[in-house]
Amino acid sequence: MYEAFKEKAPWLTADVGDGLRIIDCSEGACIVRPDGSVAAAYPPGAFFKGLARPWMGMHTIDIVRRDAAAAGIWFDTSPAKNEKEVNVTLLDEHEEGNVELVYTVDLEDDIVKVIKYRLGRQDGGSLTFTYLQDIEQAGSEFVEPALPDEAKGRGEKERGILWLVDLACGRLG
Fold it and tell me: Residue 5 has what pLDDT?
């Protein structure tokens, strides 16, 4: 995995909510508004915090827990409904209510399947992940995205795993 990482950098695109797009590639990371303008720009890898990063040589649950600890977020690990999965629950306290992120991690494939989030007592939604090996026919959409020119050369301080808390609170972008 590490050799492949040196040849082909990991990248991520995610469409979130009402038209926000997250791009994280070898050139940098950014949040793009529906009108195409860049809301924020970060160094490469900013949106991989809190997600699986197999090129680091660590198990996914350990990466999630390490990212949570680095941000000072309380976490708990418990078995899921079946033996193949585990839940890692993160809890971050805010004025607008506690943010709870529940990761479902497939232990066999060592991947994040779903991240459910809740603000206070209200369910906020979830992020469901699809991986290239799960897709029967990979097309041109699986090409590293280009960073918008507006984001190049910019670089705010990354939030670490707290970007997921910002997403749950509706403060992303």
Answer: 56
Start-to-end Cα distance in the chain:
32
Q: Which residues of the chain are modeled with pLDDT < 50?
A: none
Which pTM was predicted? Answer: 0.82
